[in-house]
Specification:
Two copies of one chain form a homodimer. Chain A contains nine helices and no strands. By secondary structure, chain A is mainly α. In chain A, α5 runs antiparallel to α9 and α8 packs antiparallel against α9. Chain A is elongated, with a radius of gyration of 19 Å. The interface between A and B is medium-sized, with 29 and 29 residues.
Chain lengths: 201, 201
């Protein structure tokens, strides 16, 4: 514990502060360029205090990536739960919410999307399963639309991936100070997704 | 010059080898986690030999980013030059080639897209101008399509950005060992782009 950080607060919100600090550091400098010392300093904690909560920066990345993916899957499932039974309506709500989530959480999303190769193998297995679940839900919507005759798509899996890809890439360029709001982007991309599947609405 | 690298070859291809080594290092570990020593070792050169060609890793990133963006703009312009005068045909060829380029050059594309914040200000100004030129060309195609009555788009600039975003995001997940070829992805995405602009073909 260095003398200049020993006076800093260590409240019950330390775990949340550590995760936020790790997201900032990973998003700005990348996982490999970040040290646990950097994260501790950003969180206003001593390296020893950080160690109490997180044994390593790899464990932190794993937690951020798992939680980020779980949240994204949760967004997709919540959208499906309230979108009714018609595939075009389902696709519209899923894409609107998924895109807005990636704009709103663009820093977490960048870390989650760009540091997959840095995940420890156990974390990666769990994250890959979550990614498959997200793609699977959207692929099912497109397949259901094709079967019901209200979408025209030859390769549902690839088109579902493209629709999600469009939402994910928003995290790369989204600027909270710019002209686009997460909600307006969600609406625009929902309309584009319906066009991509040639939906009869 | 360390003893264990002094024996390595230093042919006239050293500059190309250095750039390839820098792309590999930046793509795998990120710009901030890469040292000039890492790049020299990957290129089979001494740090001193690397310094002859490149004063800093920032200069290398600038060169990679400028050349990557120039190449991407070149792909767009070459596609337009051979696509004839009809906006839907232009959009089809541009998106097919732009997407295939991002699949084929996914490592360079990742560095170019994800390390924008690490660019020195002079490099960034040039890269921003190149990015605007790319978006501008595609926006013009969409606007021309709307004016000619063969595309239906309310926000040409945002839709052009989305179309390019779809191609760019291929670099994030493209796996050369996977089932998708750059050409097949290009064709698929060209078709999706025509749907996104509601092209009458």
């Amino acid at each position: 514990v260095s003398a200049d950080t020993a006076h800093l607060p260590r409240g019950p919100d330390a775990p949340a502060r550590i995760v936020a600090a790790a997201v900032d550091a990973f998003a700005e400098r990348g996982f490999h360029a970040t040290t646990t010392r950097d994260i501790a300093a950003r969180a206003g904690l001593s390296p020893a205090a950080l160690y109490v909560h997180h044994p390593s920066k790899a464990a932190l990345l794993g937690q951020i990536s798992r939680e980020g993916h779980r949240e994204a899957l949760g967004v997709v499932e919540a959208a499906l739960a309230r979108a009714g039974t018609k595939p075009p309506a389902q696709l519209r709500v899923v894409v609107a919410d998924f895109t807005a989530w990636h704009a709103r959480n663009h820093r977490v999303a960048r870390v989650v999307q760009y540091e997959l190769a840095a995940l420890a193998s156990q974390d990666r297995a769990e994250v890959v399963a979550l990614r498959r679940a997200i793609e699977g839900r959207v692929t099912e919507v497109v397949r259901a639309g094709v079967q019901a005759g209200c979408m025209t798509v030859e390769e549902p899996r690839r088109v579902a991936r493209a629709v999600l890809s469009l939402g994910i890439d928003v995290a790369r360029w989204f600027d909270p100070g710019g002209r686009d709001t997460p909600e307006a982007l969600g609406e625009l991309y929902a309309g584009l997704a319906l066009r991509m599947v040639a939906a009869a609405t």
